[in-house]
Write a structure and sequence with these properties.
Elements: E1 3-5, E2 8-11, E3 29-31, H1 36-50, E4 57-62, E5 68-73, E6 75-82, E7 85-90, E8 100-106, E9 117-121, E10 131-138, E11 148-154
Antiparallel strand pairs: 1-2, 1-3, 4-5, 4-11, 6-7, 7-10, 8-11, 9-10
């Protein structure tokens, strides 16, 4: 959506502003009708600033049996790569991969091989602007699917 004052575009579709100087003006202020793509771009931009409670993305899922997303913000899907190995795919990509993330998983299994569960970046993987690969397991590295998992991304 562009905004014009007296025929001069002062705000363009890229959110660039034109300085018209100081003082007063007379004339007509017009705003073009938002297009579907323009509206989506504005919504995406605003959601990135304030949506998700300040998070760029978050997701809560159950990985036992068929993986089920319970609730999310800006997460399109989760790929179940293997036991305790997931790729979280974002609905709207970030501008780059320079974001912070953290997660948790709940251990309701009775397994003597470890008691502390963790959810962390998958060793050898690289987070991208459109996805992040993570792994869940015991403190000894054993990968498992848990019923209570959560991941948050802040940019």
């Amino acid at each position: 959506m562009a905004i014009q004052i007296s025929g001069t575009t002062v705000i363009d579709n890229s959110r660039n502003f034109t300085n018209l100087g100081t003082g007063s003006f007379s004339g007509t202020v017009t705003a073009s009708t938002p297009t579907a793509s323009g509206h989506a771009a504005i919504k995406s931009y605003v959601d990135g600033l304030i949506g998700g409670g300040g998070a760029g993305a978050w997701v809560h899922w159950n990985a036992q049996g068929t993986l089920t997303i319970n609730d999310d913000y800006n997460v399109n899907s989760i790929t179940d790569n293997a036991g305790g190995d997931y790729t979280i795919n974002f609905s709207n990509s970030f501008v780059d991969a320079d974001y912070a993330c953290s997660g948790m998983c709940g251990n309701t299994l009775n397994n003597s091989s470890g008691t502390n569960t963790q959810l962390c970046l998958k060793q050898g993987s690289t987070q991208t602007s459109s996805s992040v690969r993570i792994t869940a397991g015991f403190d000894n590295g054993f990968g498992s699917d848990y019923p209570d998992n959560g991941w948050i991304v802040i940019r």
